[in-house]
Amino acid sequence: MRGGEGPASLNAKIAVGLRIGEIPLGDEEDIRKRGLELAKAGLGLVAGNRARRDSMMERWKGRNNDPLLYLIVATGNIHEDVKQAKAAASQGADVIAVIRTTAQSLLDYVPYGATTEGFGGTYATQENFRIMRAALDEVSEKEGRYIWLTNYASGLCMPEIAAMGALERLDMMLNDSMYGILFRDINPYRTFVDQNFSRMINAWAGIVINTGEDNYLTTSDAVESAHTVLASQFLNERLAYAAGLPARQMGLGHAFEMDPTLKDGFLLEFAQAQMAREIFPEHPLKYMPPTKFMSGDIFKGLAMDTLFNFVSKATGQGIHLLGMLTEAIHTPFMMDRFIAVENARYVMGSISSLADEIEFRKDGIIVKRSHEVLEQTVAFLGEVERTGLLDSIAKGLFADVKRPRDGGKGLDGLIEKGPDYWNPVEDGLREGLGLGPGAGGKE
Amino acid sequence: MAQLVRPYGDTLDDGKVQLSFTLPVPDGPKALEAARLLVGSWGFHDCEVAHSSPMSDEFTFFVAYAKAGTGIDFDAVVPDSAGGGASLSMDEVNDYIRANIGRKVVVVGACTGFDAHTVGIDAIMNMKGFNHHYGLERYPMLETYNLGAQVPNEKLVEFASKVKADVLLVSQVVTQKDVHIANMTELVELLEARGERSRYVCVAGGPRISNKLAVELGYDVGFGRGSYANDVATWVVRRMVEKARA
């Protein structure tokens, strides 16, 4: 580096045995100068991607569905994913998410290159990101509509994957502040540090984060636990602001997961969605479809997805993950996605202006239910505040799991900042995002 | 006299079925005719392609109706399920344990391997249960441990031995590329290598798990779609009593 060498050729040398830790540090001023140059170049690249996305979106303004229709591909083979993604986009999807392979969230490194083998999904690698981005740009041109690309900055490599996404112009990232702790048993400190840095990168890249509140409902009851969803939305929002994300880049999550046999269940779902919309007016809420009560009865499943589509449009959700009638049977067939898009377009077109037409009875079920959930949420967050966030997590206040601060995976990757700690990328991001200086040394 | 059954549309033995499928060809008269001929080639008669729509330039979706060419001798069918009679309710299971086993039954459950989906094991084990069937954690005569997802087989085996488990519940949701088969086999091999297989009632479960498959892989039983906690509990306590008598 001192001789003007780039990071890539240095990495190549490290790969064949160069022991970088044994080289003396050299002059600090030179290090800082070169560090700043490299960081500036990287952040500049990302800013360029952002400008390119903005101009494409401007060019095709108004051509996307509202809410954005979000579809998943998950073949394990990036080249097969490309075929399915292109078909999904030409069927009408606005957002393509490439599901990651099972267990990638627990890898403490990021695999390299194009991959063709995965279980239940495809490895998130920078090359796979590049391949899919190029394919979706091609479809965007053909369809005259910007097709968003989504992946997962979650698990043990949140900042690494956020950085890859920023460099390859991904548009959305699943990026929850506590998901890794609660649902993947990753160390709490590790996750809070990683979520902060990854969100700074997402903020700079113009990436919309999607938070994972739906996970609270896949095992707990959606009626009883409704307040945990709202509480998590508030926490995710607060932590996202702290990382420089504006509201329009916060796809706060929730889900349509109530028991379909429940009397007036539709009204309770409506209440939850409308409440989220009113509490978070500028946020592009990410609405997840029924999964837990999808049974294999595809006809019943399609009816449930239809009601889900209705609530989503009638309450003005921002990002709509399409429900699959074959949920709980297999990873979606091409025709399953097609039926899902057709259903959503029918319902959403047919009730396009309904949201502006309806008012809610002040003493009705929907208003009362919203107030009840909000009050429970305020009480719950009060308890969290008195207990402290880390102790609340350790005591099992969230999702019924206890995660002690010194437990979990990835703890060995946690190192206290030394007095000489310096991260030019962090400094550059803080400056660019208008955030205050980070805590140096001990945090 | 064999009882031959056929699909029922609106008249006994009319054999009517509905089909939907995709062909990788552009929509049009040629695609329609191809779909009709194809359905006929599967042994159906009187195929009517009721609907086709283009999904993209290269794919077409079809809905078709046709008559099945064959029936099946219903009396000769052997079911592929663990259900040997009706399951007991939660209270009945607890009574059965008190009367026939006389101590708490220790159950350890996990979603093993790299599978990250706790939905199956939670539906069976969590207090709340699923679809109005309480989970095993609520059974007073069961001592339960739900180890969650992504549990290595080694860890499950060690934990089971530590808590002196009677029953191992293994959930497998992800079945892409048959990863569940390798994983389920590994557990049985591990138990056999340690000489501990006979110590436990081993249960496999998941949306794509059949009893036949589970038994083939060396488990006592397999539970698929539509199984609840009381189905699993009934089967394992009866099995424990059977084993003790043998």
Ordered list of secondary-structure elements with their pairings:
The complex is a heterodimer of chains A (443) and B (246).
Chain A: H1 7-15, H2 28-59, E1 68-73, H3 78-91, E2 95-98, H4 126-143, E3 148-152, H5 158-167, E4 172-174, H6 179-184, H7 188-205, E5 208-210, H8 215-219, H9 226-242, E6 250-251, E7 253-255, H10 265-279, E8 286-288, H11 298-314, E9 319-321, H12 334-350, H13 354-357, H14 365-387, H15 389-395, H16 424-433
Chain B: E1 4-5, E2 16-23, H1 29-41, E3 44-54, E4 60-68, E5 72-73, H2 90-100, E6 105-111, H3 119-125, E7 142-146, H4 153-162, E8 167-171, H5 179-193, E9 201-205, H6 211-216, E10 221-223, H7 229-245
Parallel strand pairs in B: 6-7, 6-8, 8-9, 9-10
Antiparallel strand pairs in B: 1-5, 2-4, 3-4
What is the string of SSEs of chain B from the N terminus onward? EEHEEEHEHEHEHEHEH
Structural class of chain A: alpha/beta
Estimated helix fraction of chain B: 25-40%
Trace the largest sheet of chain A across and list its strands: 6-5-4-3-2-1-9-8-7
> What share of residues are in beta strands of chain B?
15-25%
Query: Which ranges of chain B are low-confidence, i.e. pLDDT below 50, for 5 or more consecutive residues?
Result: none
In quaternary terms, these chains amount to heterodimer
CATH superfamily of chain A: D-Lysine 5,6-aminomutase alpha subunit
Shape of chain B: elongated
Helical element count of chain B? 7
Top CATH class of chain A: Alpha Beta
**What's the total number of strands of chain B?**
10
Topology-level CATH name of chain A: TIM Barrel
Average pLDDT of chain B works out at 91
Number of H- or I-type helical stretches of chain A: 16
Number of E strands of chain A: 9
Helix content of chain A: 40-55%
Query: Which sheet architecture does the biggest sheet of chain A show?
Result: 9 strands, parallel
- How many angstroms does the end-to-end distance of chain A come to? 30 Å
Mean pLDDT of chain A: 93
